[in-house]
Amino acid sequence: MVRTVPMMPMPIMIMMTKIGSKRKQPQMITAAAAAAVLSPTLSSSLVDKPNLVMHIGPSKTGTSTIQKSSRTFTNILAKDAYIYAGKFGVIKPAKKATNKILKVDDCFFETEAYLLNRTRTAGKGSGSGSGSGSSGNSTDTDDGHRNNSNKNNNKKATDVPCWKKRVARLNTLYLENNTNVIWSDEAYSFAGNTKVHTQHVYEIFRTIFQDDWNLSFVVTYRRYAEWLLSALKQSHHRVRCVGEKSAWHTKERDKPSNNKCQTPYKFVLQSFKELKFIGKKQEKDKKVQNYKSFSTNIYKNIDVTTSMLQSANIPVKILNFHDEQHITSSFYCDIIPNAPHTCQHTIDATKRPGKNSSSAENVRVVMSASCSTIVFAAAQEGMSGMDTATQTRHEATLACMDFMSTNNITHADLPLICPRRLSLEALLEKSLAFEKKMVPDFFASERGEVEHRELFWTMAEERRELCHVNTKELLEGKISWEEVLKSLKEKKRSSLASLSS
User: Is 190 helix (H, G, I), strand (E, B) or coil?
Assistant: First the structure.
């Protein structure tokens, strides 16, 4: 399912799929067909200009899958008059040219000022203006931006020398051949990227590109609670508690507590700040109505980016991570206009995942963090069998995960510390509110709210993925790593025996 966010007066793309429908053949909407449903002015614009589609994630919504697939589609994309120039792209001149024009720097702001008949009043444009659209670098108003009332129609971005030089390669590669461009990079959704992530910057994109390109953005919806758990993996890698760069200890002067993996629930608390107001007084009313944000400290979620794009009057489409077909097929069949060959290729090349496929990733994320926490605690206790001199923390973690898998021990089988039911219910309500806000049609469908609730409680109560391992209980009374593993195996055996009796 793909949702197009309505914005006027800019044209909106019209490729849609029915919720829950199974696509057999790609349907092509030709330029002529598109023109028939648009005004004469807009339709001629669409036919004459190539598409520039900017896919910005956020992370943990299938971005890498789309990017890595796209890099292999060079020949098939060419049949649809497209080129992929985003992250992991293999056509270096295209990638270099596209990345260059998307750079937010002084030339970027100078070109905008020229097109809007403005004069720069202070220093170099930093692009770090507020979300209201004011950068502090120029004398225009929001109305001048939004309505383009100050734009001189006889002026073009390439009149500015620095911009002409910047887009020379792009013009050669794309515009002269009328080739459409797909660009994908989740960096535009990073919370810390204030130089890029402002409404003002999006407004400038529209101002600069609208004469030569049909500019549109793509964001991806993923269920909030599930997305948070997946984002935890990135957090763990940043503090180096999992992965190849994880360590037993750091330099003495640092005295790290950051070697410990953040627990899932603490990570949720950082993003779901409203949870701290959930207490005994709210037990009768377990819903928190006013949500400040659906983002994390690392990523801006699509409620933020979509709002800014709308305000900048740029067409934006929402790709649904939970669509029945593969995410790459959804992208090329439902999002990218007029790409029938690539659409069919993705259908032929990818297998449609089951509805719970995204859970497998989170199972690995949680078990990796649990094993890393366990081996780290065992090393701190000085347990025999946990040799930090000959084995890296990453190797010990992988060995732990292999042991768990071999013996069918899941995260739920470990001694755990879990959040209160009341807090879990509050998290679910926020996750549902996000879905209702961003993809209301999907939320109302048979695969919406009901499935959302079902999968949330499977994650929270059956797999217990928001709980963290109680290392004190697990290691208590044991003097060797072998004893720890033996106790886990015996507990699993005992649990299975009780179920069969």
Answer: strand
